[in-house]
Amino acid sequence: MAVDLRPEPAVAELARRTAEFVREVVVPVEEQHHGVARTEDIRTDLQRRAKAAGVFAPHVGVGFGGHGLDMRGRAAVFEEAGYSLLGPLALNIAAPDEGNMHLLEAIATDQQRDRYLRPLAAGEVRSCFAMTEPAPGAGSDPSALTTRAERVAGGWRIDGRKWFITGADGAAFTICMARTSGEPGAQGGATMFLVDGDNPGLKTVRHIDTLDESLYGGHIELLFEDCVVTDDAVLGEVDQGFRYAQVRLGPARMTHCMRWLGLARRAQDIATERAAQRHLFGSRLGELGMVQQMIADNEIDIAASRGLILQACWELDQGGSASQATSIAKTFCAEAVWRVVDRALQICGSLGVSGDILLGRFLREVRPFRIYDGPSETHRWAIARRVLRRHDKAATR
Description:
Keywords: FAD, Flavoprotein, Oxidoreductase. One of its GO terms (cellular component) is cytoplasm. Helix 7 (241-277) runs antiparallel to helix 8 and helix 9 runs antiparallel to helix 11. The chain folds into 3 domains: 9-94, Butyryl-Coa Dehydrogenase, subunit A, domain 1; 127-239, Butyryl-CoA Dehydrogenase, subunit A, domain 2 (Beta Barrel); 242-395, Butyryl-CoA Dehydrogenase, subunit A, domain 3 (Up-down Bundle), CATH 1.20.140.10. The two termini are 30 Å apart. It has a 4-stranded mixed beta sheet, covered by helices on one side. Strands 2-3-7-6 form a 4-stranded antiparallel beta sheet, with no helix packed on it. A two-stranded antiparallel sheet has the order 9-10. 48% of the residues are buried. It has 11 helices and 10 strands. Helices cover 51% and strands 15% of the residues.
């Protein structure tokens, strides 16, 4: 059977136009602001220009103004967008909005899609996803969820504390995961709620000072205190939140990988340019064996990451959970991207450490990916468990 990893012609053309847009429009803005967009003017201007270029919102359905790409199609386009730290923001495919759009399109009611998804897909508003909690609450183990929602007249009252809620500053709404039955540690009993940003029971506690800064809207600690929502704020079915989370988390892990892979390619291009031009010890830097090894290892990590992403995306597109494939791809890519950027910085020497180029910023941005969306250690544990279960099942046949 023939294996063709090339994207469909229409997807390839969109990826080409995305690459052109990112290099000509986004990279100069990124360099001007050192990789961090801090104002709405920057965000809205970039998105306006992306719409004009016809590359905006490639992931959402045509009915919501997007291109309706499947996961394999997204892999090609998102990688090109990720070539700049601000590329995903410009195309409206940055976390957490991109994952929330995917979730809303999959499980929201028509009314909820009109109220929340349509303006989000258009870039008119932003959103966040409130799941992670301070210890001993939900983190790597979602079942530790402590935020609780209790029934009240006409709706629900949510109480709990969340932290590391990306994009919460200025978000028009949050998708909040709260426990509606059971106790922390129980595998079920969670429900998703749509909470408007101006709800008086939703309060910002603080901005968390973090290593990374490029994700728009920061990482925020939130307090839900007597936060009352109506029954139509329930997203999906009551007590099914953990199941719905899988609709979002598997694809979101892969889209993170796609975007960071684009940035790894950028780092490799910067290092290759430096190695081709810099002369020392009587030759070009790129003619030294140790530098060649780093360039080659970068290419290997980039190619292997892309292959694992495509494998996981193919499984997702077939309708499977792809749990093993997404865990493998996420773990490998998170570590490979770090290695690529780190080697690129090493090749560039003092220039790489300086603020004259963005490799130092790239390094700070990619390091947390080994923790976000599940630490590498948690994924390795899950990967090994699945392998052992498969072995035990085969042994009993």
